[in-house]
Amino acid sequence: MARANAAYYANSDFLADFATAPEMTQVFGELLGAWAKIVWAMLGAPENIILAEAGPGRGALMADALRAWPCANIHFIESSPRLRAAQAERVPHATWHESLTTIPPGPLILLANEFLDALPVRQFIRREPGWMERYVAEATYIEQPAEFSLPDDPVGSIRETGEARENFCAALAERGALALIIDYGPAESAPGESVQAIRNGAYADPLSSPGTADLTAHVDFAALKRVANIQGPVKQNAFLTALGLHQRTDILARRHPEKAANLRAAAQRLTAPEAMGSLFKAAALCPENFPTLPGFE
Ligand code: SAH
Questions:
Q1: 10 pLDDT exceeds 90?
Q2: Which residues, judged by CB distance below 6 Å to any ligand atom, belong to the binding site of ligand 1?
Q3: Which residue in 55, 103, 134, 295 has its CB near the most CB atoms, within 10 A?
Q4: In a mutational test of the pocket of ligand 1, which residue from 79, 198, 269, 280 has the highest number of ligand atoms less than 8 Å from its CB?
Q5: Whether the predicted pLDDT of 5 surpasses 60
Q6: pLDDT in tens, 66-100
Q7: Alpha-carbon span 126 to 249, nearest angstrom
Q8: Residue 165 C-alpha to ligand 1 middle, in angstroms?
Q9: Domains of the chain, with CATH numbers?
């Protein structure tokens, strides 16, 4: 079985020629592609393997991953027609799906980077008589008594639940998939409000101009671990460092001095504790008793 460690990722031949990608994030995608290739080897290198991505955005991550592992059988879960078109420009041979349910049977490795945080949460607020569920209607909040009980927090407290995320993970577990989940959120469940609206890179009011901002909420990894077998979460910087991010960046920077500053800035952004390095977590969903996956040693 291939031994997965930082030196392996940083030096192996299959990463040799990847300095051509225009994206700043190229090393990130390559490392995830290398991760998927190792996992495929751990599965016994089945020929009918499916490499899937949930919420591929503009398709850059998969395009970068495919340079590390040119898997032929690519499936995307994407609801936005506009983003599907962008993805088709970078990964023309992909097949698109509305949800996990239509991805054909067979061994599956799925990547999900900043996907779960985009799935809806339910939000509850503790009022004097009890917990109320908070909905948005006509750009204002309305409240109805909660259908189930929640821990008895002080009046004014907020809690969020993420059934859509849990259902997604439970469905992956059900079909025996391997999935790499990268998202932001605490390692332990934390009460409080985390719903945010981001418009043009800045925080916005979630209620103003519906449909024009990205709505996200922190991913509760502990809740996901209650519905699926999951290794981690570990901090993104620990994960990427274990996979050889820095060695790989050094090699590319030496080979392409004109890109060195950009490559180092990207590595710094991905791992700096005050930036993405510690709020972002990596977690691997896998069958029970599966050997330790790369980056989760
Ligand atoms: N992975 C990319 C994009 C993250 S944004 C990145 O890291 O930059 C979230 C992505 O999930 C978008 O592509 C969005 O269109 C898609 N998405 C959100 N909710 C979805 C749903 N319910 N079903 C399918 N795709 C969804």
A1: no
A2: 55-57, 77-80, 83, 113-115, 118-119
A3: 295
A4: 79
A5: no
A6: 989 999 999 999 999 999 999 999 999 999 999 99
A7: 48
A8: 12
A9: 6-118+163-185+220-285 (3.40.50.150)
